[in-house]
Amino acid sequence: MVRQHFKDGHERKLLDDDEGDTNAGVEMQRLAGSGSSDEEEGVSSRNPKHSHTQADTVEDRPLTMPLKDIIMFPVKLWRDFAVWSRNMKEFYGLTFLSVVCTVYWAQGFRSFAMLATTFFYKEELGLSIEASQAMLTTIYLPWSIKPIYGLLSDNIPFFGYHRKSYITFSGVISAVPLLIMSLPAITSANATTAMFLISQIGVALSDVVVDAIIVIEGRNDPQGGAANLQSLCWSMLSVGGLLGSWLGGLAAAKLSARSVFGLLSVCPLSVFVMSFFLQEPKSTTPVSTVVLKAQAKLLFRAVTNSRIWKPTLWVFLANSLSPSCEQMMTYFKKDVLHFDEEFLGLMNVLGYLALVIGTAAYNRFLKPIPLRRILIWAQIILAFLSSFELILVTRFNVDLGIPDKAFAVGDEVLSGVFGQAFKQVPLLVLAANLCPPGIEGTLFALLMALNNLAWIVSSYSGAAFASILGVSATDFSKLWILILFRSLGKLSVVLLWFLLPSDQQESQTVIQRLVSAESRNTSESGEWMLSESTHPDATGDSERHPVTVSNSERSAMRQSDRL
């Protein structure tokens, strides 16, 4: 369970690591062959024929690496990282990088309160399983309206700024509810949910605004600015998420939930403080509805195109037709299997590591495969993996001689790796391919918002099914039925394979036609068309789409697969 609250994660920083992975792979191969390169060169000069035979032999045998190179490889990676960090500092400045790192680290570290929030609803407020899941789902509704935040910050300055003031405001509205929740003033479930929802508005707002800043700054370095900045953000999100999950398990076991909420407020407060160091000129352009109208027109034409709404519908159904049983499984692991808070926190850490491994697996092995094939197989594989929890809830793993903790950890890691490699990263690539120039940022945000909404529908439906089946904190006898429905829901989407584009080239060709048609209509009517050249603050950048998923969104998407 790695929900951090939606992607969760804008779903961000996932694919730009591909360049680093590729370079590392090339370096590994170079190092592997360095031990014998001189010798082969000598043989070649003496006997070309023998050289040809030796080359064939080297090509056929397994790739090996000398022990010295294996030992020095981490040192070289550290030196490369030091050089990369120094170059980033010189190009972007320490102040800008500090602001970016603070925002994304703080967002990742919100996993610190995940277990405490769950147990607060369960034990302090005494809610039933279905009510707890419904309330916790409501908290993340702000992530379903991300395009609104983007449109506001792009086009309407707040206290004279398009970015800085919005980040400052986001830090305030995210921290204040957490500080209130640290006091015993709030005792009702509805008021608690309202406080957490307001806090999530701040997180989602800062997520969108800082993403826009990164896109704009990345354009200043066309040779690799987007990739470098996104890699930095992904790293900070991962570090924050891993550290927050680990410490969150310890905190849930040692501290009260309200103490955890108070400690978590340090994250948005740090964002609030760092926002004052962000350098941005005041906006002197009067607010105009021209941009909003042009963007809305392009967006409407895009979403009504069948080659865009069909795959979008498939993505929505793939995540919404399988009812989530997240809270049911958390209650089951805590009350029936007697997993303590520290072990549950460790499982969250493993979930984050699985995300990293899954992303690397996609970059290494799956990129050349057509997206339709990957996504269809993803549903089949994930349906099979999700049924593993049937073994856990029926305790059949005990009959097989597999301890509960070992089985739960294996299930967590497998689901995380396959869910990330086979579905979540390909979904982000698909969303990027569907976004036409001029409205990339807005349409991509809309696609991610719909994905978030699908997760919400899945969670609400899971709570409803739990109520109908009578699943409660004291009766899990019918939980297996809900898990079975979840697996069947994943399989049912496979029947709608025809909604997906047959290959990446097809979707890109359709987008090009759409843009060409729109350009002709615009030039004929004399209307203004939104583009990056006419609107420098536009958040569109096709390079960023596969990687701009927030930690919260990415985690939420993972939960829709896992649960």
Write the SSE topology.
Elements: H1 17-46, H2 48-60, H3 67-92, H4 94-109, H5 114-124, H6 129-138, H7 146-155, H8 164-181, H9 189-218, H10 225-254, H11 257-264, H12 266-275, H13 290-303, H14 306-320, H15 326-335, H16 341-366, H17 371-386, H18 388-393, H19 396-399, H20 404-433, H21 440-469, H22 479-492, H23 504-525, H24 551-562
Helix pairs in contact: 1-2, 3-4, 4-9, 4-10, 4-12, 5-10, 5-11, 6-15, 6-21, 7-9, 7-21, 8-9, 8-11, 8-12, 9-10, 10-16, 14-21, 16-20, 17-20, 17-22, 20-24, 21-24
Describe this structure in words.
The chain is mostly helical. Helices cover 73% and strands 0% of the residues. It has 24 helices and no strands. It has helices at residues 17-46, 48-60, 67-92, 94-109, 114-124, 129-138, 146-155, 164-181, 189-218, 225-254, 257-264, 266-275, 290-303, 306-320, 326-335, 341-366, 371-386, 388-393, 396-399, 404-433, 440-469, 479-492, 504-525, 551-562. Helix 1 packs antiparallel against helix 2, helix 8 (164-181) runs antiparallel to helix 12 (266-275) and helix 9 packs antiparallel against helix 10. It is globular and about 65 Å long.
Short description:
This protein has 563 residues and is mainly α. The chain is 73% helix and 0% strand. The longest helix has 30 residues, at 17-46.
What's the rounded overall pLDDT mean?
76
Assembly classification: single chain
Q: How large is the share of residues in beta strands?
A: under 5%
Number of helices in the DSSP assignment? 24
What structural class do the secondary elements suggest? Answer: mainly alpha
Radius of gyration computed on alpha carbons: 25 Å
| Proportion in helices | over 70%
**Main beta sheet strand tally, sense and closure:** none
The rounded distance between the terminal residues' Cα atoms is 8 Å
Mass-distribution shape: globular
Low-confidence segments, given as residue ranges, are: 1-63, 517-563
Number of strands: 0
SSE order, one letter for each helix or strand: HHHHHHHHHHHHHHHHHHHHHHHH
